[in-house]
Design brief:
single chain; about 220 residues; alpha/beta; Metallo-beta-lactamase, Chain A; 6-stranded mixed beta sheet; 5 helices; about 30% strand; globular
Length: about 220
């Protein structure tokens, strides 16, 4: 069984996820820890739960989701994985940080790239990858069929969707990603988003004002 912990960090209130199973191996998804206090909070959570980080995975490379890359990669000596279309965005993140008054230490380079139909494995667990662009050019979502949840990044939120006015964003592409990928999942699948509270696929099908039943 996969355990999911959410820690909310940085001025953008970004959700960083730590996933682990009974082996205590864990992955860190979208490390957004920004200052020393937030770095300590994440490190203490990992230590207090006797977890062993084995990789960092990015749903996408916008600045609020990558602020902690250098910290966690160096502290735990672990690799970084993301979709190849996010590589340029990762490099440009410190530049965009200056626009928001945020000083970001550049992220280390990724070790490997992820694409649809790849698997992310840790311990005895695995996640399927959906390519879900629209919020950014290389956004991915991470799905656990066994444990009935999906990490959607900034693609789908409770009663909302990701913004599409940033580089790589496209409204029509985002809607298509949600309807042809995420909305093919069972209604009971829990959605863990990059910001805000969890929701479910079924709830968003019924209530999300940006979406309807038309594909």
């Amino acid at each position: 069984m996969i355990n999911v912990a959410c820690l909310t960090f940085n001025p953008f209130s970004e959700n960083t996820y730590v996933l682990w199973d009974e082996t205590q191996e864990c992955i860190i998804i979208d490390p957004g820890c920004y200052d020393a206090d937030e770095e300590t909070e994440l490190a203490e959570f990992i230590s207090n739960n006797n977890l062993k980080p084995i990789r960092v995975v990015l749903t996408h490379a916008h600045i609020d989701h990558v602020l902690g890359n250098k910290f966690v990669m160096e502290k735990y000596d672990i690799p970084l994985q993301l979709h190849k279309k996010e590589q340029d965005g990762l490099k440009q993140a410190p530049i965009y940080g200056t626009m928001w008054g945020i000083n970001m230490v550049p992220s280390p380079e990724p070790s490997t790239f992820l694409d649809e139909n790849d698997k992310i494995t840790f311990g005895k667990s695995k996640l399927d990858i959906f390519f879900t662009p629209g919020h950014s050019s290389g956004s991915i979502s991470l799905y656990s069929n066994e444990d009935n949840f999906v990490i959607s990044g900034d693609v789908l939120f409770r009663l909302s969707i990701g913004r599409t006015d940033l580089p790589g964003g496209d409204f029509d592409t985002l809607i298509t990603s949600i309807k042809t990928k995420l909305f093919t999942l069972p209604d009971g699948v829990k959605v863990y988003s990059g910001h805000g509270e969890p929701t479910t696929i079924g709830y968003e099908k019924q209530h999300n004002p940006f979406l309807d039943n038309r594909i």
